TrEMBL record:
The lineage of its organism: Bacteria, Bacillati, Bacillota, Clostridia, Eubacteriales. This is DUF624 domain-containing protein. Residues 271-284 have a biased composition (Basic and acidic residues). Residues 271-294 are annotated as: Disordered. Residues 285-294 have a biased composition (Basic residues). The keyword Membrane applies. It comes from Ruminococcus bicirculans (ex Wegman et al. 2014). It comes from the Bacteria.
Length: 294
């Protein structure tokens, strides 16, 4: 009998690769394990979002186009998003991750593509910020304008969902920007279930942040950005692995290094996993009464 419990409990030993939980149970288990690190990641990423946040707030408050100059430093959000995505991908796929090292390494490695995508995002964001209110105003005067208004909203949703895959491919593949954007468009439909779940989770977080303004501004630096990114990586990276990464290795006749642990050479293993073959341990029940301390 041990001090804190009986370790002679009948049953099998610990499996080297225990059965994993699935779906939402696995999500919360993995997220809970990395929650504090993700909050640190959110704070680090938020620093790069300050110019963009100021631009949006000041534009909405004053409608002065001078604040569009803040879009210039805002392009750094692109490389920062690629870096955050790399860390969230590692956490969501239960790989080893060193927050600061992996973030800065990915930031530098993907700086060019991230900056290009960041500039594209800024241009589209400004276009949607101007176009949607304009079409809505015109539609109130002429019902026929509702057609381009709906098209504009649809394009915004598709463009938003493409980002579930764009930055994951920037940080996980060697594809060029043209291939990444084209593939992300197709992957939205190929992984429609994962895309819609990620969209729903993102909208819930965004709506919650909006409804609880201005109090939600206090948690903005710590939670929502990395949470949305983690949800996206958890849902959508398997789609990229299935349709983009795995076909590459299949064509070359190579094994995907992500699954190397499943194909380990038995001769190189130090220990043999035979927990599943173990027979239950039978323990004798003691008839003596336990001693009490008075």
């Amino acid at each position: 009998m041990s001090l804190f419990g009986n370790y002679n409990t009948p049953g099998r030993g610990v499996l080297k690769a225990p059965q994993e939980k699935k779906g939402i149970f696995k999500f919360f288990e993995v997220y809970g394990r990395h929650m504090w690190k993700l909050m640190e990641l959110n704070l680090l990423y938020f620093v790069f979002c300050i110019p963009l946040t100021l631009m949006v707030i000041l534009m909405l408050m004053t409608s002065n186009p001078i604040w569009l100059l803040l879009a210039i430093p805002s392009v750094l959000v692109g490389p920062a998003t690629a870096a955050m995505t790399k860390v969230c991908r590692n956490y969501s796929q239960e790989r080893n991750a060193f927050l600061l090292h992996d973030f800065w390494d990915s930031f530098k490695k993907n700086f060019k593509q991230g900056t290009i995508m960041g500039a594209i995002d800024i241009i589209f964001a400004i276009g949607f910020m101007v176009g949607i209110p304009m079409y809505k105003y015109w539609a109130e005067q002429n019902s026929m304008i509702y057609i381009p208004f709906v098209i504009c909203i649809s394009c915004l949703i598709v463009f938003f969902m493409m980002h579930f895959y764009i930055y994951l491919m920037i940080s996980s593949t060697n594809l060029n920007m043209k291939q990444i954007i084209k593939n992300s468009f197709y992957l939205v439909s190929l992984g429609i279930k994962q895309s819609l779940w990620s969209l729903l989770a993102s909208l819930i977080v965004i709506v919650m942040m909006y409804l609880f303004l201005p109090y939600s501004l206090f948690i903005l630096p710590f939670w929502p950005l990395s949470f949305i990114c983690f949800v996206t990586c958890f849902n959508c990276y398997p789609v990229i692995r299935k349709h983009v990464i795995q076909p590459y290795y299949d064509q070359r006749g190579e094994s995907n290094p992500e699954f190397a642990y499943k194909n380990a050479d038995p001769d190189e293993q130090l220990f043999e996993d035979r927990a599943a073959e173990e027979t239950p341990v039978k323990t004798k029940e003691s008839r003596k009464k336990g001693k009490t301390i008075s």
